[in-house]
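[job 4417] fold queue: 2 targets
>>> target A
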Amino acid sequence: MTVTDPELLVAQRYSLASTRAAVTIVAAWHLGSDLPSTIIGWSSYRWPLLAVAAWIVYTVIGVAASVVLLNPGRKLPFGPWAAAVLALVADAAVIIACRPEAVMTAANWSWGSVGWLALILFWPRLTWPRDLGVFFLANALVMLAGMAVADSLDQVWIGKFLVVLFGSMVLQAGASAGAHGFDLAARWAADNSRTLARAEATQRAAEQVHADRLRRYAQARQAAAPVLTRLAEGANPSDPDVRHACAIAAARLRRLIAETDDAPNPLLHTLRACVFDIEKRGVVVHLLTAGTVPPIPLEVRQALIEAPLEALARARTQARVTLVATANQVIISVLSDAEEFALPAPDGVQVATQVEGGLLWIESGWTAP
């Protein structure tokens, strides 16, 4: 499977969309909620510049994490947990900057929003659920420590603390789980699509193999049936006509067998196999080739070699075969001491013949359209 597979591209687009959505939510929350809370609650801070510094640190961490998340080839100069600890330090800084009575007001924005930062820091990690859980616990402990220092651990403040903590955790963990689930569903869909495509391709290949077998069976039957029928009807095997017919049928069967072999040059491979079959009968065959044979459809190869094959099969003592190929043309010629015969007239090829000095010359040519 390559990166250009449509299913993989779709899954990657869904994953990128989920990532962009997470980054957008974090940026919108920090700019649309944290910044106004800092400005509006300016009078609620003992050290407002410390709150501003914490907001800037939060921004730097968020920008760095977003760049890394949107560009998987990049990495943080420090690990995600180092950045998470720094975010918790900024969280504590905002709590410290608040006046004691303002610890549970909107001015203390950090402890409710720092979880959004953790969402993108731990986003690409397989252990993101555990990491988020540990971070949420650490954030709650930081806030409880700040409330204890501010002497705000009464029932009312504890109730507010639990409501804000639970609400923010549900939003942040839910957003992370939903986006990861969406990404996982897209990858599952891509995997199922690839599996289905492979199954369909396997089925089509099996059907094609079956069809090819039936076609070759029909061709083999067509090549051998007439000779076998003549022999079964009592034809004399020593009769020259019967022997020629048997030789032709044998050469055609040899051609069919050769065509099933996996070879870089199927036409030359088939021609050599036929020459080898003729040589076993004691015929001296010279095979000459020139040029590189271009890709030719199977039907054209069969038609192109039909006449030369029969001329070889009818050769008595000697034959010369020449194969000349260019980028758009292939010519096969046979010169043998065979008797003249009726030439086949296959579609798509040109066949010519000439008899001179007791030798038969056959030429079969194909030109690319």
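>>> target B
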Amino acid sequence: MVRRQNLNAILEMIESSANLEEIGEVLAQFRNLLEVDHAFYRWVDRSGSISGCSTLPVAWQDRYSAMGYHRIDPVVIGCYTTFHPVDWRDLDWSARLAAAFRKDSLAFGVGSQGYSVPVRGPAGQYAVFSITKTCKGEVWDKFTRKHSRDLILVAHYVNRRALDFEMSFYPLPEQPLSMRESEALSLLAEGMSRARAAEAMDISEHTLRVYIEGARSKLQAQNTTHAVAGAVTMGLIGA
């Protein structure tokens, strides 16, 4: 995992970003911190078009858009059917168009390995946060095991901040969960005890309780289990 103070700094910068371009600048810092090739966030809107922020080469971003690759991209398609992180090796690249797309992406330096976190928000909003790295399989396995939790957390922070910029398309609830409330429920959704969740967030159990109670109130939940289930159902946190 990334050192907690470094991760907190990344999360705070995401929260204070004024637009998607600034989030992209934060992703560049996150990429350097993890020593990966690229980090990018893609928002798929109701019409099926793509927007977001990225450290990918501009030439590849332009080509991706011009070729309409989002319509055949196995990452975009494969992540749509799951709430859980996806290793690109587990996706179906066998189709002719998918194989050609993969070959093209490698030529532009996207990276030989990839890991994506699907994220869902209010009103059916769907996005994917991904990182890529050129390395061997065993190195990648170790990397994803070590950093998966951090990647899920950053994905949700990026998505929630992006929602602030797209209110006209996907209105948030009247009382949206704060970043820390979402993080608390996400950790509990992973099966963590309150003690472990508080440790992961680097806060006291009392402070964790405050975040949970705040989330319960906003979600009008009868108990913590109800709050977690409600947040997952509404797409506010991952399953």
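[job 4417] complete. Note on B: The chain has two domains: 4-165, 179-233.
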